[in-house]
Amino acid sequence: MAATGFHLRATPDWRLPPPLRRVGIVGIPPLAVIRDLNDRGVEIHDLDALLVAADLEESVAHLPRVYCAILRTAVLNALRLELDAIYIDVGPGKCDGAFQVAAVLAETLPIPVVRTVNDDTRPFGVPLCKSRLPLLEKFQRITEGVKMADPGPPLSSCVPTAGFWGVPPRDFSILSLFPDTTHVYGWTRCMENKTPADAGLEAFCNPEVPTVFFAQSFCAKTALARLLAGRHPRALCLDVDVHTGSSARAKVEAFLELTGGRR
Q1: 27 and 94 in contact (C-beta within 8 Å)?
Q2: What is the pLDDT of residues 207-236, one digit of tens each?
Q3: Whose CB among 44, 100, 128, 195 lies 3.0–4.6 Å from 147's, allowing a Cys bridge?
């Protein structure tokens, strides 16, 4: 029997010609890409976030359920939004799953799907991660910041009483359980620093404060979360799939109460 197969469409050069009005991003494309889009006045949509009101099960036709809820959400957004192009970070700053998602979207959508590798190393600082803002607001500002090439305004730091290590959760409601004096670590800190592939920064945490090590279910970062939590003197390792259930909420509340993280 003769071998059969198909060829994926090649990724175009990231400097796409006009007209380019609305684009989606998955992960954090290189700063040069974001700056170019900002300079051209292009509207950027973070496809990792909850942007459309649709059942996540609709993504199953294109992506298996064993993929994390963030990547499944990105696929659902890409299918529902009217975009001119999509930029996906497929390097170590995102995950291998994003590389496969890029292939799926490139074959499914009639628009360019541009694979990029973000190996930026210039640090922009992490004032939001160390601020006294409510944790939910910290995450909202950090995730919005990926659409802009320039850093946000300076902020004063607070003394931490708790830590949240990991990726931005699909369901932000879990963040309301933490005190304002929670410092942010893990890949989310790399997001604000605009260096998503900085493995050293991602692995950094504070052993002096009780810390929840969080990852989405089925995410490869659950391995690192478990490793770091095993070394930390006061840690809770937690993974959540689509929604934050009552069990996960109870674990976080009890952990913060028993370890003094709420003070």
Answers
A1: yes
A2: 999 999 999 999 999 999 999 999 999 999
A3: 44
